[in-house]
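Incident log, structure service

09:12 report received: a user says their structure output differs between two submissions of the same chain.
09:20 pulled the input from the user's history:
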Amino acid sequence: MRTNRSWSRRAFIAAGLSLGGCARFDRPPLGVLHPPTPGNTGQPPVVLIPGAFGSILREGCSGREVWPGSSAELISSDYHGLEVGFDPVTLESRAGGIEACDLFEHGLGRDFYGQLLATLERIGGYVRCLAGVVPRVDQRNYYVYPYDFRLDNVSAARGLHELIERIRADYGDPRLLVDVLAHSNGGLLARYYARYGTADLPESGPFAPTGAGAKSIRRLLLVGTPNLGTMQPVLSLLRGERMGLRKMPEDVIATWASGAQMMPHPALPWLLDVHGGPLDCDLFDIETWRSNGWSVFDPQVEERAVARHGGGADGRRQHALLCDFLAKHLERGRRFMESLTVPAPGMEPRTSVFGGDCERTLARMVAERVGGRLIAREGVADIAAPVPGIDYEALMFEPGDTVVTRSSLLGRRSLDAGPARTDFESPAIAHSVFLCERHQQLTSNPSFQDELLYALLSGDAA
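09:34 re-ran on a clean worker, output below:
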């Protein structure tokens, strides 16, 4: 449900302003709503985790910037530099000396995290600190956790643990708790860390949540996090990702281990037939992709990938390895999403979620069979032979922020009340806030920032 706290405050302020004339109230006056207070007032440090594409990637943190690069590169790059290498035997990713160094704040005239940082510092009184440097404990401090968003989320969760332990050492307090503010995919790795700490994801068998990471987190604030996944990585694998004037190729995205860990949860129907019924089509099974000629199995994508890796036998060998890599990490993606919904009572910190629910957001695709293959349609107008009387708009789209549906943010299979499943647990959410905002603009939305400051500074997670 929508919060009533800030809207009632804003209505009161707006009414007061209107008494002096025909005033218009568009932006919450954050400095008035959150007046400065001296000192730390007992606030723990905040760790900010960006979403996918939210970290700056460089070669060795001192050389060439791989992502996002210059504005010209961001607009017109072929994006092959974002391809991830992997071991041909273990199919494990190799970063190749590329490291995540900082937060992507602004680019191409758009704000990503710059306004959020400015609000934390100017209104919230937070000071950015670096791990390894002893901070002043009489002030509010925050840290940024950049990570390589192309790599496995479990590896990123281990990096989060290392950062928190360094912060504890800097504070001289091995029991120090932190507040974690995580955007989009950053929330998934934070939740995994809370449940399992640094433990690896088991390839098979039952999951064993321990709550190891939750012991170091006072509260978890999730912004636009796809707790039950999102269709965005599916679309990226199917037809690439438009970035600037060009497209990030499907075969480059297929080298990212993290992509499958953001896909719709295996328990959710993601593909429908033209009559609106769910298709038995396993998103995490490589044979689904192979039999339908999707992504790296598309003949045009395969031809391009083979040519880019030298052509001939060498290029075909590399393409075959890429298919094996994708198969392995699709299965790992299945396990990752399932690991976040197995029952783990009391093993996650107090959690608040912030998101958008006023935009049509793709939740399911419709498939048509053409020449023995299923063609997945992402838009109603794309359906070549629609069945009269079928409301495809209602079947395919749900309220959300254009990337994450409201139900996914809340971790619910459906927003409709229904029988509970003992094998499927939604996150225990203490507080939820929904805005009319798109996914990419959530962190810069002033109403979100108002709610965030209240959650951080009120002394209570709600």
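09:41 both user submissions now match this output. Likely a transient worker issue. Closing.
09:42 reviewer note: The first helix runs from residue 5 to 18. DSSP finds 14 helices and 21 strands in the chain.
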